[in-house]
Amino acid sequence: MLRPTLLAVALAAAFPAFADTDLDVLRAELQEMKTSYEARIQALEARLQAAESQSAAASETASAAAQPSEAGSAGNRFNPDISLILQGRYANLDDIEHRHITGFMPAGHDHGTPRGFPLDHTELVIAASIDPYFDGYFNLALVDEEVEIEEAWFRTTALGKGFTLKGGRFLSGLGYQNEKHPHAWDFADNNLMYRALFGEAYGNDGVQLKWVAPTDLFMEFGAEVGRGANFPGTDRNKNGAGSTVLFGHLGDDVGVSHSWRAGLSYLQTRASDRDADIDDLNDVEAETLFSGSSKVWIADFVWKWAPNGNASERNFKFAAEYFRRTEDGDLLCVDNTADGGACTDVTGLYKTTQSGFYAQGVYQFMPRWRTGYRYDRLDSGSIDFGANNAFLPIADYAPTRHSLMLDFSPSEFSRFRLQYSKDESMENVSENQWFVQYIHSLGSHGAHSF
Amino acid sequence: MKQLFTALLLWLPLSVHAALNVFACEPEWGALASELGGDAVKVYTATTAMQDPHRIEARPSLIAQARRANLVVCTGAELEVGWLPLLLRESGNAGVQPGRPGYFEASRYVTMLEKPVRIDRSQGDVHAAGNPHIQTDPRNIARVGAALAQRLAEIDPAHAAVYQARWKDFSARWEAAIARWQQQAAPLKRMPVAVQHKSFSYLINWLSLREVATLEPKPGVEPSLGHLAEVAARLKTTPAQAVLRATYQNPRASEWLAARANIPAVALPFTVGGAAGADDLFGVFDVTLAELLKVPR
């Protein structure tokens, strides 16, 4: 009883013209009671209707429901989006013992591809809003005897002004392909550039701050600092940042049918005793330990076309990335004379400048069917082993690969792919590779980025 | 560099005083926001009538527009689930995140049809909340309009009177138009139709047409030739008088069936800009009714 009275008083205060007498206060109070009861009766009627329509609809597809305000979605805050990605393949490859890219230090996280019928990583993804201020994402990659947390991070949703802060383990925002998990790649295997640079992709434990400018032209700038434990850096047991990433992206539409994005990224990190096995001048495997700095520049460009912007019928996507990496420090080549090797525990300087690129085009020529071509080319560049020049081979080779793929997606949640590659990433080896791959996604999988 | 910086500085405060930025996911909501906002709003429409609203890429240009938006107006009911959540997250715009006043879902204000009893991917692209193509019933436009006018006033109180006045004006014209359309459509009652996708359930419900066949075997799944032949056979026993599709959909399937069953294939505008003459919300229904009335009965 108190509330309507208070309201009436408030109303009276707000509209003094109507509050000349007590009678008006009473009138207002009565009116308030009347409307409140009317609202309650209406609510009850709506509930009754809802109950009726629900029982009527139970037999078949509900044709109507009377509670539009409860239109919910499958994913909500009590019900995180969970998806599982099943991937496997058939791979027809030559029997090569030490797969590597000639002239490049093997990057840490590279699983290689077994021949025959291997099961690829099964990915488990859980994502949801945490509260009105954050959302969270978790990606677990599972393969026999190996469980790897690929990503586990929180991200702000309420900072505003175009700022987003991400913290935890995440795939770096550098380049174009880096943030994409293998199931979202357009080819059955990684491009040579990312394989040489990071093994698979550059992930880091740390924080990322991103800002989108309030302009018609898409402009995004990001900075990351992190542990830097992954190749090309190493875990170095220190406080402070082990690696720094800076990136910027621009993008826009051209007319209604074309869109593009271009970016420039920079990664700086350090390694301490980074372990790599390479064949020495006697063709004996030698263990090398690198300590020093590693800096990578990446330029990326993506262009997409779809007639009238309607990608469901036909569309085309072109993507290319170029990198340049310089490493500067010392290299120890561990004594392997016992095995007939050339190395004698000498620490010499190590200085390399290497580069490479890939360019790919993927064309959806009719609904559900796509075909694509990718060209990879790296340049072993300049390599200086200093005192170890006497023991280690200096490659002068441009690893290349051509890949051709055809994929069929019965729905947006399933895909089958056939790929042929002519791989010349190892000097004196020309390999014909065949892949048949499937990628299936169960559950509510979030949208893929541009 | 310095010039760019000063340009940015000069430009930033300007944007604060500019009109309310409305980001509309589909043309119908863009048109509605323009009707209600007039000069007080600046409307950006993310998709066109020639695009399938289920399948839009989270393009950089859309992220840039979502970043500047004060109000995002979308259908909801999972229609934009493949791209909108990504746009909103990437935009870094706190005001338009789901649950905030700057996020408006039209489907929350209408009664949804075809709520699935079984939600399973084996049923195709089904939406748990019901059929999201609510804009094909003009009465839904009115319901959404009332809610949108209120929301506009809430986030831009300075222009509340403008929004209310424009809503009143629009509402009066709209109700009159609905009455006119319903009168025109009287002869269409009980007309049996086949549809390519479940795009027109609300239109069919409004005009009391009868949907006797759907060309897609499951929502969002392209019809195969075998399935089309089955539908054609079914039309022999329960004949339809037209095959309806939205302009953005590929005409092949419906034209094949139409030729088989010797009935017209009709492309309806589906939304603003979907056909010549469908330049605003009134035009959409004028053209839709004109096309339907052309069907020989």
Task: Please provide a written account of the structure.
The complex is a heterodimer of chains A (450) and B (297). Chain A folds into 2 domains: 2-62; 82-443, Beta Barrel (Porin). Helices cover 12% and strands 48% of the residues of chain A. Chain A is built from 3 helices and 16 strands. Chain A has helices at residues 2-14, 22-57, 192-198, and strands spanning 81-92, 122-131, 134-143, 146-156, 163-171, 203-212, 218-226, 243-254, 258-279, 285-305, 315-333, 346-366, 369-384, 400-411, 414-424, 431-443. The two termini of chain A are 57 Å apart. The model of chain A is unreliable at 4-20 and 53-75 (pLDDT under 50). Chain B folds into 2 domains: 2-180, Nitrogenase molybdenum iron protein domain (Rossmann fold, 3-Layer(aba) Sandwich); 185-294, Nitrogenase molybdenum iron protein domain (Rossmann fold, 3-Layer(aba) Sandwich), CATH 3.40.50. Chain B has helices spanning 2-17, 27-37, 60-68, 84-91, 138-155, 160-184, 201-207, 225-237, 252-261, 281-294; strands at residues 20-24, 41-45, 71-74, 103-105, 192-195, 210-214, 242-246, 265-268. Chain B is globular. Chains A and B meet through strand 6, strand 7, strand 8 and strand 9 of A and helix 3 and helix 4 of B.
